[in-house]
Write a structure and sequence with these properties.
The protein is α/β, with parallel strands linked by helices. The protein is 33% helix and 23% strand. Helix 6 runs antiparallel to helix 10. The protein is elongated and about 55 Å long.
Length: 249
Protein backbone atom coordinates (compact mmCIF):
# COMPACT_ATOMS: atom_id res chain seq x y z
CA UNK A 1 0.00 0.00 0.00
CA UNK A 2 1.29 3.42 -0.98
CA UNK A 3 -1.27 5.29 1.15
CA UNK A 4 -3.83 4.78 3.86
CA UNK A 5 -6.89 5.27 1.70
CA UNK A 6 -9.19 5.01 4.70
CA UNK A 7 -7.68 7.76 6.82
CA UNK A 8 -10.53 10.20 6.14
CA UNK A 9 -11.20 13.37 8.11
CA UNK A 10 -14.55 14.76 9.17
CA UNK A 11 -14.97 16.53 5.84
CA UNK A 12 -14.88 13.24 3.92
CA UNK A 13 -18.64 13.03 3.53
CA UNK A 14 -18.79 16.44 1.87
CA UNK A 15 -15.83 15.67 -0.39
CA UNK A 16 -16.57 12.13 -1.50
CA UNK A 17 -20.29 11.38 -1.43
CA UNK A 18 -21.67 11.46 -4.99
CA UNK A 19 -23.89 14.34 -6.00
CA UNK A 20 -27.39 13.76 -7.28
CA UNK A 21 -28.23 14.65 -10.88
CA UNK A 22 -29.94 18.03 -11.37
CA UNK A 23 -32.69 16.18 -13.24
CA UNK A 24 -33.79 14.67 -9.92
CA UNK A 25 -34.48 18.06 -8.34
CA UNK A 26 -36.22 19.26 -11.50
CA UNK A 27 -38.47 16.21 -11.56
CA UNK A 28 -39.45 16.55 -7.91
CA UNK A 29 -40.17 20.25 -8.31
CA UNK A 30 -42.26 19.50 -11.38
CA UNK A 31 -44.57 17.32 -9.28
CA UNK A 32 -45.32 20.20 -6.90
CA UNK A 33 -48.37 22.42 -7.40
CA UNK A 34 -46.66 25.15 -5.36
CA UNK A 35 -42.96 25.86 -4.97
CA UNK A 36 -42.76 27.93 -1.82
CA UNK A 37 -40.84 25.79 0.69
CA UNK A 38 -38.88 22.55 0.22
CA UNK A 39 -37.41 20.70 3.20
CA UNK A 40 -34.57 18.18 2.90
CA UNK A 41 -34.58 15.99 6.02
CA UNK A 42 -31.39 14.17 6.98
CA UNK A 43 -29.66 16.49 4.54
CA UNK A 44 -26.07 15.60 5.48
CA UNK A 45 -23.82 18.09 3.76
CA UNK A 46 -26.45 19.27 1.30
CA UNK A 47 -25.89 17.14 -1.80
CA UNK A 48 -29.59 17.26 -2.67
CA UNK A 49 -30.53 20.36 -0.66
CA UNK A 50 -28.65 22.79 -2.88
CA UNK A 51 -30.05 21.27 -6.08
CA UNK A 52 -33.54 22.18 -4.92
CA UNK A 53 -32.70 25.86 -4.48
CA UNK A 54 -33.30 27.01 -8.10
CA UNK A 55 -36.82 25.53 -8.00
CA UNK A 56 -38.21 26.88 -4.69
CA UNK A 57 -38.52 30.20 -2.92
CA UNK A 58 -36.88 28.70 0.17
CA UNK A 59 -35.12 25.43 1.02
CA UNK A 60 -34.38 24.20 4.53
CA UNK A 61 -31.87 21.42 5.16
CA UNK A 62 -32.23 19.55 8.46
CA UNK A 63 -29.80 17.08 9.99
CA UNK A 64 -29.26 15.84 13.57
CA UNK A 65 -25.47 16.04 13.16
CA UNK A 66 -23.94 19.45 13.87
CA UNK A 67 -20.78 18.26 12.10
CA UNK A 68 -22.69 17.48 8.91
CA UNK A 69 -24.44 20.84 8.99
CA UNK A 70 -21.13 22.62 9.64
CA UNK A 71 -19.76 21.08 6.42
CA UNK A 72 -22.93 21.68 4.38
CA UNK A 73 -22.74 23.52 1.07
CA UNK A 74 -23.89 27.10 1.03
CA UNK A 75 -26.37 28.25 -1.60
CA UNK A 76 -28.78 31.10 -2.09
CA UNK A 77 -32.25 30.51 -0.64
CA UNK A 78 -30.91 27.59 1.44
CA UNK A 79 -30.57 27.52 5.20
CA UNK A 80 -29.56 24.66 7.47
CA UNK A 81 -30.71 23.69 10.94
CA UNK A 82 -29.61 20.97 13.34
CA UNK A 83 -32.72 18.88 13.95
CA UNK A 84 -33.83 15.25 14.16
CA UNK A 85 -36.29 13.94 11.57
CA UNK A 86 -38.81 13.12 14.25
CA UNK A 87 -39.23 16.70 15.51
CA UNK A 88 -39.17 19.15 12.62
CA UNK A 89 -38.74 22.83 13.61
CA UNK A 90 -41.35 23.96 11.10
CA UNK A 91 -44.88 25.37 11.33
CA UNK A 92 -47.94 23.36 10.34
CA UNK A 93 -49.06 23.03 6.76
CA UNK A 94 -46.45 25.10 4.94
CA UNK A 95 -44.11 22.64 3.17
CA UNK A 96 -44.57 21.87 -0.53
CA UNK A 97 -41.85 19.20 -0.87
CA UNK A 98 -40.27 16.90 1.72
CA UNK A 99 -37.19 15.02 0.58
CA UNK A 100 -35.01 12.46 2.31
CA UNK A 101 -31.87 11.37 0.49
CA UNK A 102 -30.03 8.24 1.64
CA UNK A 103 -31.21 8.70 5.22
CA UNK A 104 -34.76 7.41 5.73
CA UNK A 105 -33.53 3.99 6.91
CA UNK A 106 -32.15 5.67 10.06
CA UNK A 107 -35.44 7.34 11.03
CA UNK A 108 -38.16 6.38 13.46
CA UNK A 109 -40.54 6.24 10.53
CA UNK A 110 -43.92 6.48 12.33
CA UNK A 111 -42.73 9.59 14.19
CA UNK A 112 -41.22 11.07 11.02
CA UNK A 113 -44.34 10.43 8.97
CA UNK A 114 -46.47 12.06 11.64
CA UNK A 115 -44.27 15.14 11.35
CA UNK A 116 -44.52 15.07 7.55
CA UNK A 117 -48.32 15.07 7.75
CA UNK A 118 -48.18 17.98 10.19
CA UNK A 119 -45.90 20.24 8.14
CA UNK A 120 -47.08 19.28 4.64
CA UNK A 121 -49.22 21.66 2.65
CA UNK A 122 -52.24 20.03 0.97
CA UNK A 123 -51.00 17.85 -1.88
CA UNK A 124 -47.34 18.25 -0.93
CA UNK A 125 -44.87 15.79 -2.46
CA UNK A 126 -42.88 13.37 -0.29
CA UNK A 127 -39.76 11.74 -1.73
CA UNK A 128 -37.53 9.08 -0.19
CA UNK A 129 -34.45 8.82 -2.38
CA UNK A 130 -31.62 6.30 -2.19
CA UNK A 131 -28.90 5.07 -4.48
CA UNK A 132 -28.03 1.43 -4.89
CA UNK A 133 -24.77 -0.44 -5.06
CA UNK A 134 -22.19 1.16 -7.32
CA UNK A 135 -21.16 -0.43 -10.60
CA UNK A 136 -17.64 -0.06 -11.93
CA UNK A 137 -16.13 -0.68 -15.33
CA UNK A 138 -15.45 -4.25 -16.51
CA UNK A 139 -12.27 -5.55 -14.93
CA UNK A 140 -12.96 -3.66 -11.71
CA UNK A 141 -16.57 -4.42 -10.89
CA UNK A 142 -16.22 -8.09 -9.95
CA UNK A 143 -13.61 -7.29 -7.29
CA UNK A 144 -15.74 -4.46 -5.93
CA UNK A 145 -18.90 -6.58 -5.77
CA UNK A 146 -17.02 -9.27 -3.86
CA UNK A 147 -15.86 -6.64 -1.38
CA UNK A 148 -19.32 -5.13 -1.00
CA UNK A 149 -21.33 -8.29 -0.57
CA UNK A 150 -18.85 -10.74 1.00
CA UNK A 151 -16.04 -8.85 2.73
CA UNK A 152 -17.49 -5.63 4.07
CA UNK A 153 -21.06 -6.97 4.02
CA UNK A 154 -21.02 -8.40 7.56
CA UNK A 155 -20.17 -4.96 8.95
CA UNK A 156 -23.20 -3.15 7.53
CA UNK A 157 -25.91 -2.27 10.06
CA UNK A 158 -29.25 -4.07 9.50
CA UNK A 159 -30.78 -0.87 8.09
CA UNK A 160 -28.53 -1.15 5.04
CA UNK A 161 -30.77 -3.91 3.66
CA UNK A 162 -33.47 -1.27 3.19
CA UNK A 163 -31.12 0.73 0.96
CA UNK A 164 -30.11 -2.33 -1.05
CA UNK A 165 -33.81 -3.01 -1.73
CA UNK A 166 -34.46 0.56 -2.85
CA UNK A 167 -36.76 1.01 0.17
CA UNK A 168 -39.16 -1.42 -1.49
CA UNK A 169 -40.28 -2.98 1.78
CA UNK A 170 -40.47 0.26 3.74
CA UNK A 171 -43.80 1.58 4.96
CA UNK A 172 -44.85 4.59 2.89
CA UNK A 173 -48.34 5.87 3.83
CA UNK A 174 -48.85 8.36 1.00
CA UNK A 175 -50.62 8.29 -2.36
CA UNK A 176 -47.78 6.75 -4.34
CA UNK A 177 -46.46 8.15 -7.61
CA UNK A 178 -44.44 6.28 -10.24
CA UNK A 179 -40.71 7.13 -9.99
CA UNK A 180 -38.59 8.01 -13.01
CA UNK A 181 -35.58 5.92 -14.06
CA UNK A 182 -32.40 7.80 -13.16
CA UNK A 183 -28.84 7.09 -12.14
CA UNK A 184 -25.82 8.88 -10.76
CA UNK A 185 -22.70 8.73 -12.93
CA UNK A 186 -19.29 10.04 -11.94
CA UNK A 187 -15.84 10.03 -13.51
CA UNK A 188 -13.56 9.36 -10.55
CA UNK A 189 -9.94 8.70 -9.80
CA UNK A 190 -8.95 5.85 -7.50
CA UNK A 191 -8.51 8.29 -4.62
CA UNK A 192 -12.02 9.67 -5.10
CA UNK A 193 -13.60 6.23 -5.24
CA UNK A 194 -11.81 4.94 -2.16
CA UNK A 195 -12.53 8.22 -0.41
CA UNK A 196 -16.21 7.51 -1.02
CA UNK A 197 -15.88 4.00 0.42
CA UNK A 198 -14.17 5.46 3.49
CA UNK A 199 -17.41 7.28 4.33
CA UNK A 200 -19.35 4.02 4.70
CA UNK A 201 -20.59 3.10 8.16
CA UNK A 202 -19.51 -0.50 7.50
CA UNK A 203 -15.93 0.61 6.83
CA UNK A 204 -15.83 2.61 10.05
CA UNK A 205 -17.21 -0.37 11.96
CA UNK A 206 -14.69 -2.77 10.42
CA UNK A 207 -11.88 -0.42 11.41
CA UNK A 208 -13.24 -0.09 14.94
CA UNK A 209 -13.27 -3.88 15.24
CA UNK A 210 -9.63 -4.15 14.17
CA UNK A 211 -10.36 -5.49 10.70
CA UNK A 212 -8.31 -2.95 8.76
CA UNK A 213 -6.71 -5.77 6.76
CA UNK A 214 -10.06 -6.34 4.98
CA UNK A 215 -10.04 -2.72 3.85
CA UNK A 216 -6.40 -2.54 2.87
CA UNK A 217 -6.46 -5.86 1.00
CA UNK A 218 -9.34 -4.61 -1.11
CA UNK A 219 -7.69 -1.23 -1.70
CA UNK A 220 -4.46 -2.93 -2.75
CA UNK A 221 -6.28 -5.22 -5.18
CA UNK A 222 -8.27 -2.36 -6.66
CA UNK A 223 -5.14 -0.22 -6.96
CA UNK A 224 -3.49 -2.97 -9.02
CA UNK A 225 -6.56 -3.36 -11.26
CA UNK A 226 -7.14 0.38 -11.67
CA UNK A 227 -3.77 1.11 -13.25
CA UNK A 228 -2.69 4.74 -13.03
CA UNK A 229 -4.30 5.96 -9.80
CA UNK A 230 -4.97 9.34 -11.41
CA UNK A 231 -6.91 7.83 -14.28
CA UNK A 232 -10.63 8.57 -14.08
CA UNK A 233 -13.08 5.73 -14.52
CA UNK A 234 -16.86 5.61 -14.66
CA UNK A 235 -18.78 4.79 -11.49
CA UNK A 236 -22.58 4.50 -11.66
CA UNK A 237 -25.30 4.10 -9.02
CA UNK A 238 -28.99 3.38 -9.74
CA UNK A 239 -31.32 5.91 -8.13
CA UNK A 240 -34.27 4.44 -6.26
CA UNK A 241 -37.28 6.43 -5.07
CA UNK A 242 -40.53 6.19 -3.18
CA UNK A 243 -42.61 9.15 -4.26
CA UNK A 244 -45.97 10.14 -2.86
CA UNK A 245 -48.40 12.94 -2.28
CA UNK A 246 -49.80 14.08 1.04
CA UNK A 247 -53.56 14.12 1.32
CA UNK A 248 -55.40 17.13 -0.04
CA UNK A 249 -57.30 19.13 2.55
Amino acid sequence: MKANWFDAGGEGYARFRPDYPPELAAHLAGLCARRGLAVDVGCGTGQLTTLLAPHFDEVVGLDPSADQVANARAAGRVRYLVSPAESLPLPDGGVDLVTVAQAAHWFDLPAFYAEVRRVAAPGAVVALVSYGVARLEPGLDARFQQFYWKEIGPYWPPERALVDSGYAGMAFPFDELAPPRMEIRREWSLQQFLGYIATWSAVRRAGAEGQEQVLHRFAGDLEALWGDAGRVRTVAWPLNMRLGRAAES
